[in-house]
Amino acid sequence: MPSARPPDLPPEPSWSGWGDPAEASELSDGLSQLLTQALGIRRPGRRVGPLSALAPPPSRIPATVRAALESLLGAAHVLDDDEARIRHLRGKSTPDLLRLRAGDLADAPDLVLLPASHDEVLDTLRICSRELVAVVPFGGGTSVVGGLEPRSDDFTGQIALDLRRLNRLQALDEVSRVAVLEPGLRGPEAEALLGEHGFITGHYPQSFEYATIGGYAATRSSGQSSVGYGRFDEHVVGLRVATPTGELALGRAPKSAAGPDLRQLILGSEGALGVITAVSLEVRPAPAVSAYEGWRFESFAAGAAVVRRLAQDGPRPTVLRLSDEAETALNLARPAEIGAPGASCGCLAIVGFEGTAEDVAGRRREVTRVLEAAASGPEPEAGESWVRDRYHGPYLRDALLDAGALVETLETVTFWSSLPELYAAVSGALRDSLSAQGTPPVILCHISHVYPSGASLYFTVGCAALEDPLVQWRQAKAAASDAILAAGGSITHHHGVGRDHRDWYERELGRTAVRALRAVKAELDPQGILNPGILIP
Amino acid sequence: MPSARPPDLPPEPSWSGWGDPAEASELSDGLSQLLTQALGIRRPGRRVGPLSALAPPPSRIPATVRAALESLLGAAHVLDDDEARIRHLRGKSTPDLLRLRAGDLADAPDLVLLPASHDEVLDTLRICSRELVAVVPFGGGTSVVGGLEPRSDDFTGQIALDLRRLNRLQALDEVSRVAVLEPGLRGPEAEALLGEHGFITGHYPQSFEYATIGGYAATRSSGQSSVGYGRFDEHVVGLRVATPTGELALGRAPKSAAGPDLRQLILGSEGALGVITAVSLEVRPAPAVSAYEGWRFESFAAGAAVVRRLAQDGPRPTVLRLSDEAETALNLARPAEIGAPGASCGCLAIVGFEGTAEDVAGRRREVTRVLEAAASGPEPEAGESWVRDRYHGPYLRDALLDAGALVETLETVTFWSSLPELYAAVSGALRDSLSAQGTPPVILCHISHVYPSGASLYFTVGCAALEDPLVQWRQAKAAASDAILAAGGSITHHHGVGRDHRDWYERELGRTAVRALRAVKAELDPQGILNPGILIP
Asked: For residue A191, with 0-12 CB atoms within 10 Å meaning exposed, 13-18 middle and 19 or more buried, which class applies?
């Protein structure tokens, strides 16, 4: 089985921004104008650096613990240089980036470990549990919910467990179409390894270039093609997991009636119950044909009704997204043209098809018949533009933060009948909170993932940054989160809980469910070393 | 919302056999001949009775506990008459029936309770937890894995919590296509209530006439239309659960990334973690058109290859089943004709389509193209016969037991690449064990549920009954269960764990997972009153 790291892997990401530094975005004239005129931006954003000029607090790990870890992993795989520690500090939420940009390096991990196997992970956890060292499993570092921001004050130290050396395709069962993938494989690496055999994962979240297989599983990730290919968790048929008290090997079949589905206890556990060391994943043949196009509805409500009809009665496209009026007007579906003159009107849907030529032709014909009755289109250029720039959005945030904007996203999900109320409630809460702070926002939204019984809403918020944008955003985010729960939504559809959503997650679960979850945590991780403060209320 | 019990509900089932006594099967001449000639049956089966002549051991419940329960539920809903206690004793496995037929009434519940609401269930559990009374949640009583056979020796008594009065359609959200159904609704009741609004569950297990919504959820039931409509658990979007220490209300959306999916901890929990008091279920429009037909393959392997191709690449029929050579030869797909002269050859597949006229026509055309290349057909009569008799199989078992046969079924699931080995291993283990006991068996098998990465195998075994058929079967079943685990299968695809599979379930899970499950049990049910001895290793 091939295990080499493919050569086209994106480079190390920016330490205080998104992705490949060479891909950094420039703001278009239209967007610059929007920032100053519509949002009233006054001062540029702060950004310390370079990385080499910064130093985190001294490492706290006792020498004996370090020696034990070096003996286990080899000294070359136990890092405490400043750069390694800073690069494993926090994720990629706007608050994460704002703190890094301000030079706040508190809570940097004391050590970065690079284990290469399940057994090394298992032994690392045993040592850390015995020595009361907090462990943060680290994949792509792309969390946007504080999933890499543990509370480690009560511990001897904090370790980032970087899984990048667990990067093999362990096995591929072509008959069953199941691949056993290691957790440290980034999206492009996994696709390259599978591609040699003609398969794909079908999983393409916006964080694709950096996010990892382990992270997809640990956070219940959903990709942009979830309508056609399904969510990541739906295709996980087996998991191997290392915990401080032993290992789990779950999944002897796609489905079973042998008790509760314990795979579903690990999926979404965000490193707080164990470290995923292998994922058995249903894969699918690489599509022969793909086609993307735009369709334009008169209103968000009209578009949502048709999107719902397709989700419920089919046929389902592979990709199906619907922007609201504000997002369509800003051309957010085409990041390279955001704010460009001649902004779009109505509500743009992106509809994509992937599969065999016959399958694509058949579904496209049926979907087109449904769309033609309610929308104008197709607009091939809108589809092609979306595909080309689908991973580009986060790069733009760095340029906006540089310019003095506060930009962040949040998302939620509910049943179809509650969607209009949820949309209004979240938009209203964000607008009220930020306007009351003197920074009236632009709020954009799209439906990004649809199911027969419900759909997700993905909001993008932009406004002028205040002197302390962290406090500014914390207020707005809390208001939005309260509104989500009050309107019956879930606190997150695909970003996860992390530290940022934990209090709302606790309210969403209720006391009895929280107790059940804590009981599992206490059993698998009795010292509570795994991602302390993350997920578990 | 309508809540009346529809008039066409099947009558109370036979106390020591399957289903409506008026539907009891006669053995055909061909089958009688087979029994004596091929299986060497010597003596008829034993069957004590009538019910009115039998008495279980005296009820153990202290008067004070009974008074507390009567005060809570009303005296009319606290039963301890002999008939009620016998009718709530055990399920419908062959060992269950053999023990009832022999007049073994040990372990009959001491009381039968009929709560009518979530709150009544919650309060009942609190009383029973305080008084150390074991509680067995009781739906349709159709368990075939000892799911209603608790170990209650360490308790003050044992109560059957019959949920038949929780039989309302609480709500129907026609926009989201989500129904809130109470757990005591039997299959036909639920369909009738949804049918008034044009919806169906799409869930039709062989136990459909008696099994309940709560049972479907608690055992991760799969219906005969699972290929097209999915498994029951896949459509559960919300659960309300009463536990001895509080209530759970899970599910704010079809899918979410808010932590582990705790609905999946209750689905399959078999009454050992809590009592399900409401199920929010995705429903679908009643199909306008249905069509069933038979197709005949030269061999099981050839048929399995095509069934796999349809499961992986589509289009998927609504029903897709494939009998092996032995099952096809015995006409098991047509229970009314089992063993009739002119037995079939090859391997018969039943292929069914339900949906709109256009959808059925489209899928059928594509599926036919795939089938024509590898099978002969269609045989409309085989499909119609299967639909007509689809719930009839279990009735025949009673007649076979009467005649002195030992007949039972078991099932498993694995990935496609392991299916041939699993098939051979289980068949071989059953044949070896029963032949060594002097009763060489007939072994029949079909693929009943298919997924992109795997499929289930459903075995039917028949042989001459020995003097003690319970011991005879226990040996054969243990050999089959060992073979399932050794070949990499799951101990059950859709029957559940109960008491019969518990030891193998423990081996399948592994020690760390067992500890996690026990921790949840200890937290939600600290006195262990819920279905003691069931599921949890």
From this structure: buried
* CATH, residue A380: 3.30.70.3450
- Domain edge (last residue) among A236, A261, A285: A285
The 10s digit of each residue's pLDDT in A308-365 is 999 999 999 999 999 999 999 887 545 556 655 555 689 999 999 999 999 999 999 9
Say whether both B67 and B119 belong to one domain: yes
Q: What is the pTM of this model?
A: 0.96
Query: What secondary structure letter does DSSP report for A142?
Result: -
| Helix, strand, coil % in chain A, rounded to nearest 5 | 40, 20, 40
Q: Does residue A294 share a domain with residue A277?
A: no
> Do residues B533 and B150 make contact, with C-beta atoms less than 8 angstroms apart?
yes
Q: Are residues B267 and B320 in the same domain?
A: no
**Look-up of token digits 């043209």:** A337
A415 and B178 within 8 Å at the Cβ level: the answer is yes
Residue B62 CA: distances (Å) to CA of A460, B126, B188: 63, 16, 37
Non-local (6+) Cβ contacts of A533 within 8 A are: A149, A150, A151, A152, A499, A502
Which residues form the domain of A369? Answer: 289-388
| Planar angle of CA B387, B390, B395, nearest 5 degrees | 145
Do residues A268 and A353 both lie within one domain?
A: no
A118 CB neighbour count, 10 Å cutoff: 21
A 10 A CB-CB count for A393 gives 17
**Domains: count for chain A:** 2
Summarize the confidence of residues B74-93 as an average pLDDT.
97
Q: Which of B250, B255, B259 sits opposite A231 (nearest CB)?
A: B255
Q: In angstroms, what separates the C-alpha of A281 from chain B's closest C-alpha?
A: 9
Q: Is residue A99 part of a domain?
A: no
Residues 6+ apart with CB under 8 A from A29: none
Task: Give me the pLDDT at residue A339, please.
Answer: 56
Residues B134 and B218 in one domain: yes
Strand B111-113 to strand B157-162: parallel, antiparallel, or no bridges (unpaired)? parallel
pLDDT tens digits for B105-143?
Answer: 999 999 999 999 999 999 999 999 999 999 999 999 999
| Average pLDDT of span B243-266 | 98
Residue A204 lies in a domain: yes
Q: Is beta strand A169-173 parallel, antiparallel or unpaired with respect to A178-181?
A: antiparallel
Token reading at A276: 């995923």
Catalytic residues of A: 458
What residues of chain B, 131 to 170, have a C-beta less than 8 Å from chain A?
none
Interchain contact, A175 vs B413, CB within 8 Å:
no
